[in-house]
Amino acid sequence: MPDATAQRPTPLQLFLIFTRIALTSFGGGLSGWFLREFVQTRKLMSEEEFLNGLAIAQALPGVNVTNMAIWIGYRMAGRNGAIASFLGIIVPPAFLVVAIGSVFASFSKYELSHVALDGAASAAIGLSLAMGLTAARRVPRKLFPLAVMAATFVAIGILQWPTLWTVLGAGSVSVAVAYAGR
Length: 182
Description:
mainly alpha; 7 helices
């Protein structure tokens, strides 16, 4: 539940929040940091609102985390918040990636650098898993949504059907059934 007394961040504050998250996160799992920052810590939105935004961000073309940052920024501070959030999640990390890439290229011959990357990848997988479990808790425990999830997994993971057509088909059926049930 959002805290009614919580003050919404300004565009500058959003830029700094997203810059901090982007500069301290490795690999995937950024949406888990967004959840912690805006739902659990700052209480600016409910978990349900956040997960709805995540679903929208994942459905849109482009990078999910960037879409999510734009959505949160717009929700918190309108157009300027969306722009500030986008710049915070993209620009400072881009400079850092170029710098780290240059340094890593000179250290790539050492085994320790590969061990460090494996550790960062493990942490990113853990964050992604935590986000997935949070989202799975919110899925209605009804037969149809579980059947759609299982069918999508089988179609893409086992039968190797094209992801785009599978998601469009399963998503369309799922939305139509949910809409009809309201």
